[in-house]
Each structure stands twice: as C-alpha cells, then as structure tokens.
Amino acid sequence: MTLTNEELMQQVQTGNIEALGVLYERLHEPLYCFLFRYTKEEQISIDTVHDAFEILQKKHQQYNASLGTVKSFLFQIAYRHLINKLNRRKRWQTLLPFLVPIPKKALQSDDKLMIQQAIAKLPDKQRAVILLAYYEDLPLEEIALILSIPTGTVKSRLHKAIQVLKIELKEAFQHERGL
Asked: Residue 56 CA to chain centroid, in angstroms?
C-alpha cells in the first residue's frame, strides 16, 4: 500500500525521517521543473529544491493538512525562498554587475522556444501563476496558498497572463511564418 504525501508528512511530523526521503523522491522533480521554468537557471533551481527540503525538514510541524496539500506547502516554501534569493541577487548585481549569470540556450523546436520566450517576458507575478497552473497542473486554491495571495488574484493574474500570451504568440507566429 502506497502512502499519500499527506500521510508521509504525518510520519515526518512524528519523527520518521525516512518518510521525508520518500517525499523528496516524489516531489523533487516537479518542484525543480517549476523552479527551472520560472528562472531558466539550472543551478539556482537545483539549489532551491535542496534548500526547500531542508526548510521543510525544519518547519515540518508548521504543515497543516486542512490548509492544503504537502505539495502546495513545499512549493510555497520553495517559491518564497527563490524570491528571496533572486531579490538578494538583484541587490548584489547592482553593486557587482559581472555576477550576472549567462543563460544557456537549449536546443528545442522553434514553437516551444517562442512559447518559452513569451512566458519569460511576462511579469514575475503572472509568470508564476502560469507556470504553476499549466506546467505543474495545480488548482487555483493551491496556487493561492503557494503565492500567499487570494484565489481571486490568482484568477485575475492567470486571465491577464493568458491575454498577454495570446497577443504575443499570435504576433510571433505570424512573424515567424511571414504572414
């Protein structure tokens, strides 16, 4: 019998550290994918995944199943930690501009690349909602928990992001195909 993430978290809360390892095996990949899609930086994504699980281990008693899933709790931890890292990096970059990482370009189809570029151009708040909704397939309520915003705000950001993406991608595809 396979335990749910919530049952595993209950075991973590009672001192079963092996249950945390099982949670890591289940959730590290989707968490990494979200973070990488958000930042487009492999190393900061990897670091944030590991940091998020360390924070989860320290704050496991703060988890409350009535407030959401373990996945949303972990994503919330990771998102907040990532935003703090990025804000710190921005402050350092203004002082030491040579610290800006050079992004690696992956070889992908032109259409995927255009979509990724359009998502990357979205404002941070809209990009986070799009990534969590469409790439991580999270319900609006969990996205609201992760981002610490009301569900209505998630809906409006998602709606606005979709409108912007439709316009951006329509123009990009027309330009690409010479229409």
From this structure: 16
